[in-house]
Amino acid sequence: MTQAVLFDLYGTLVEPDWVMLRAGRDAIADRLGVPRAAAHAAWAATHAARMRGEYGSLEGDLAAVRAATGARGSANGVLLSELAAFERANWCSAVRLHDDVIPMLLRLRDAGARLAIVTNASAEAASVIPALRLDGLVDLVVASCNAGVLKPDLLYIALGDLGVSEVEAVLVDDEPQQVAAARRMGMSAVLVHPGADSRPCRMPRAARL
Question: Model's pTM, two decimal places?
């Protein structure tokens, strides 16, 4: 019997405005004094490390991005703090919660399910969870930037913290490889498909309790 439902974040519960996010990172590149194209390449090059929280903080991430552009010297700490705050605010403004998410989480919680958000996310991407108050609707949030590992290893951490076994949990995710990995672990898993018209994705019946 299903005791817990683990939700991916991006593409499942929320959707980002990539145009707005890219514009924000262009502004950051300008403030850092590095070419925009080089900065975007540096964001990509540091992506995996940032997702695992290897630089310690968003300020550390920004310093790593700057270094990856080939910029010389050390970055100004005050400027990095200002840009980190700007980046968090931009993500919180640019990420939209699907309309059906809060009612769905409330229904599942009322039905007795334990709920978790389990996400591969860098510091700025994870910051939208408290900004959208999703952390108050679930029992657990496990973000890769804090845990130091990515899915599917992140799923084991979530299961342990929730106190449930693989056969008692369902993963809801928009990435086929994550769904396949969860099933190999012995979990049930549901692949969601956000609509092409950007309407909220509807939770498949198999994920409902």
Answer: 0.89
